[in-house]
Amino acid sequence: MFTKLMIDQMDRKVQQQQQHQQRQLQHTKAPFPAWKETPSAMVATGKSGSLTKASGATTSTSGAKSKQRKKCVRPCPNPNPNQSPKEEGKRIGESDDLPDANTGRMNRYYGGKSPTGAGAGAGPDLTLVSHNLEDKVSKIARRNALKELAAMQTRHEQSTDKNEDALRELQKSIPEISKIFDVHCRIGSGTFSSVLLGTLQRERCLGETSRRRFAIKHHNPTNHPERILRELECMFRIGGVDNCIGINCVVRYNDNVAFVMPYMNHDRFHDIYRSMGLQEVRNYMRNLLIALRHVHKFSVIHRDVKPSNILYNRRTGKFLLCDFGLAQKIDADGNIVQANELSNAATLALMRDMEAARNLMMQDGNSAQDEVQEYLACKHEQEVSLRRVRALGGGVGVDYSLINQSPFDAQVAALAKKDVAAQRADTQRLINRLRFVNPNADPNHYVSPTNTNKKEVHASRAGTPGYRPPEVLLRCPVQTTAVDVWAAGVIMLATLSSLHPFFRAPNDCAALSEIINVFGDIEVRKTAFMMDRLVLLTQKMTALDLRRLCMRFRLADHFLSPAVQRRHRRADGTVEACKSCEQATYNCICRHSSHKIETYEGLDIYPAHAYDLMSRLLELNPQKRISADEALKHPFFNDQHRIVSGISLQQQHQQRLLQQQQQQQQQPGPFRVRETLPSAAARTLKPYICQTLGGIQAKVEVLAKSGTAPDAPA
Ligand SMILES: Nc1ncnc2c1ncn2[C@@H]1O[C@H](COP(=O)(O)OP(=O)(O)OP(=O)(O)O)[C@@H](O)[C@H]1O
């Protein structure tokens, strides 16, 4: 059907082109009735036998003139001497006959002179010329149309056939699947698998929304069995609770394996990261850390924490960490346990468990009905919130994610084109600074061991570029669950800065350079030295202030507003720039800035605690990096809690509980009016020490005795 349509289309195109060419010919013939040339002046060129009129051709047949004619026949020298004559002929043929884009006339070669020129003497038989031209034009048109058809077909096939290929491939390689499931479409694919949506055949009688939906992950047959086994083990033993994806059953046929998991409707991070408000970021990060804390309890490193492996539904607030394909188990000494080190008994036990689970699977899976109801409920809440926002007249405190427009968008609309262009250029300069990689750096030898006599131990590099922590990039053989915590920090950085992916990292050397560009060379060198590594650097880089860096990207309109710029402009109209971060001095984003900077007080929707948590997740030294469990106790997740002197801790605790209950009653659901910060909110990053209650009490007691009032949580 598709091919027939394409052929019809192609024929129509050919006809149109022919008509166009005929019109062109008539147009060419009409004004020059006297233009004649003997057929001897027509010379066949190339294989296609296309005709080219020699310039200055006369009726003379003298040898010299004939030579000259032959010379002139070559339309233009081949600019590429390596090009084969065949290619050249084709090139000539093609360019020779296409209509001129400007004049609309045929772009035939007349030896540099127009047919009206002096050189245009007696012409050929125009009827013959026109017939030949028509033939040639139709051939070329057909050839071009065929090419176009082939390209269109390829594009079409690529999009639809990928879907169908995945379906066909699954049904062919695991026929049992088609006996249990109706497989509908491909919902995702990665390096190692295709994920398809399936519903149970036995639930066909149920309505569309009542049928349970499953994600069927079909592993590529080239996938190493160890990898599949490792993923299966993790999902089975770890998954199903605390935001980690579980597994319903596994179907294997020869060397093909498919995992059946509950399907979760989710939003692409790419579509939502710019519009996540404080509460949403808090929930997202909390859910991610809950999942990591759970995974890490089993001494397992997920190793592939990234937005595409997080299934998050912003309407329902549901959250699942998936894809345990790179997960690694570590033993008590911190060494990685290979999947093939699992005892046969353990593997057999796992398989037995899976068999039992397979029989139970029909009880599990998530119900599409639930999702529809949740969706409708949330939609209602969203509408209520929107109405409230409109009633408030928008402005400060509005959750822009509700109305799909950021304050930045609104203000940019009001800016002059010139200012927007300047802002874009400035932002691009900053991005270039973050992505800078010294061209002299050797991507294969950018790090070396401090002690070259020591035998080098293999260091795992598993993970996704841009989410690998310094210890992986520095080839440190001892890696812990801190690897995942770094990746969580990178996700938080992308969210708070509205820049995704934050680290582009085309290779490990570039990835480390990007980290150095943000955290400074000294910090990275120190971390490397602690791991017995030397980083080969030729350039110094100052550390940036994470908060100002994020604000610079997210609140670019304020950072680059013409009004502020005018205030800081020098007499000659220029603005002084910081030598380290290359930003205007008043916008300096260096961690230890000596410039007088604009603070943009009260604009940031994220509190200081958010940046404090992020900096602890992005601690370069894995030994000092906060754990998922500790991170969950960070004040960012409990921001309202401030210890007040003069009131007993028990009373404070009770007050807090009461406040929480009141808030829960007031909260309409996942969509709330965005929290605003009082302009006097703490702007400095206070050191956060994860303490037990006893510790806090001790501190309060000491402070109470000394008579000072602690204003922030210890
Ligand atoms: N349970 C699920 N429900 C809905 N979609 C899913 C589910 N599991 C996976 N997906 C989709 O399939 C995509 C690929 O899945 P997954 O990451 O497990 O495959 P992969 O081959 O290991 O990918 P990668 O190469 O990125 O690691 C996910 O990004 C997600 O969009």
TrEMBL record:
Check the record and name the InterPro entries matching this protein: Kinase-like_dom_sf, Prot_kinase_dom, Protein_kinase_ATP_BS, Ser/Thr_kinase_AS
Q: So which domain of life are we looking at? A: Eukaryota
What segments bear the compositional bias annotation Basic and acidic residues? 85-94
Q: Where is the composition biased (Low complexity)?
A: 15-27, 48-65
**What general EC class does the enzyme of this chain belong to?**
transferase
Write out the GO biological process terms: cell division; mitotic DNA damage checkpoint signaling
Which annotated residues bind ATP?
Answer: K217
Q: What Gene Ontology molecular function terms does this protein carry?
A: ATP binding; protein serine/threonine kinase activity
Region described as Disordered: 10-123, 442-464
Protein kinase domain spans which residues?
181-637
- GO cellular component labels: nucleus
Q: What is this protein called?
A: non-specific serine/threonine protein kinase
